[in-house]
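Good morning N.,

You mentioned wanting to compare the apo and holo forms, so I went ahead and generated the holo version with NAP. This is what I fed in:
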Amino acid sequence: MYYGGQWRDAQGARTFQVFDPATELPLASVADATPADARAALNSAVVAQRHWARTAPRTRSEILRRAFEAVTARAEEFASLITLEMGKPLAEARAEVTYSAEFLRWFAEEAVRANGRFGTAPDGKTRLLVNKHPVGPTLLITPWNFPLAMATRKIAPAVAAGCTMVLKPAALTPLTSLLLTRVLAEAGLPPGVLNVIPTSSAAEAVSAIITDPRLRKLSFTGSTQVGRRLLAESSTQVLRTSMELGGNAPFLVFDDADIDAAVEGAIVAKLRNMGQACTAANRFLVHESVAAEFTDKLTERVAAFVVGPGSDPTTQIGPLIDEASRRKVHDLVLDAVERGAVVRVGGAPLPGPGHFYPPTVLTDVDPGSRLLREEIFGPVAPIIRFGTEDEAIAAANSTEYGLAAYAYTRDTARGLRLMEELETGMLGLNVGVVSNPAAPFGGVKQSGLGREGGFEGIEEYLEIRYTAVSDPYA
Ligand code: NAP
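and this is what came out, ligand included:
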């Protein structure tokens, strides 16, 4: 682990192992932070905070810019490490590196633009001075599915804003964060600004610091279930929180859509990261007049996908992250099949080693099926038919989630209606990917609070302070 600018062992030299999901073989042992280690890491962040908040925005910006260049220069090293510990195909890992590095560049640019405002009160009696101040020491908790992107999407705006941090990476994929930490230190990030605590006991390590009054913010990406628990813990000291939680994205195909484009979009929205993305299309709602054509074309494309280890350049679908995830995906498929769903392709786990599951297309899915309500987090596409636009919107919105949605239509007015009617933080209109470092990423309803990326991303790490100044003419 890393805190106070030094690499350290855990208390009692505790370690845990990281595995390759394609081979199930161990890759490395890392320090296993205890609650005492977590408190020591927070101490380092607290000690560094005052000086860091006063560091010139240009200095913070240039550290991020150097880190952007270093991550880009070491893209292959990062990509192989992501593939090794997380399993995604190398081409997707390279795309993740580019996406992740862009957060460093974007927030290098935003660091010098976080200004407040100055005005006159309506009665003319005072001047209003509004400034933005770093929130303070922040706890960042990241998931395993995008080990580099989820880290830079939080670290870059926190650095830009002048916050110090404790990062707790996912236990399944801590290695990428540790390499990023090295790169940021080499780029000139001062000791104590970023502290990293891998741990196999997340609940204990996080509980040890989340109620500490010196911690000022929590930024969490992960499941809604864990998010709810952390929100409850954060309420003890009314901690400022940003929550990027789960999704259940609808993918709508209307009768006027370009079906070939919709199939291409569906493949990216469903199969990127083997379906293990919070923005992954979870339900395909297709107009009854084009459902047969869409299903046939999607099935044909998906059946040709090559499943294998991510390190093999011919692989298009890597393994799922672990056995529990694969079992959950298969249970959801079995539940749908028991309720009458027809398997068009895929539908059963592949032999190991490795947690492989083939791309799967299901039709005739009963509305009561669990996979329409729960996040599948695997390469399974359930297709259901609709008749009218209103029916499609009602079905799309019938979930407690509201992270991403996709719609294919050639009708611009319909596109604008969907923008207004769909309860979603992000809409892909005739595109299968919504993520962009320059755009505000985040959800409505139980998909979360706050936004990452865009102009909005840095605001999560800034608080507003206002000073009333007496009338200079009085
Ligand atoms: P998860 O189980 O909620 O874990 C996320 C992080 O929280 C991990 O670092 C985990 O540590 C930690 N954690 C788990 N239990 C905890 C507890 N009781 N106290 C404190 N920390 C705890 O989610 P995941 O399986 O890693 O990731 C998949 C989920 O993330 C999906 O629901 C997906 O939709 C969501 N996600 C959302 C976004 C978004 O931007 N909205 C992006 C990516 C993923 P361990 O690794 O040790 O369990």
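The domain at 249-398+404-436 is CATH 3.40.309.10 (Aldehyde Dehydrogenase; Chain A, domain 2).

Happy to go through it together on a call whenever suits you.

Best,
F.
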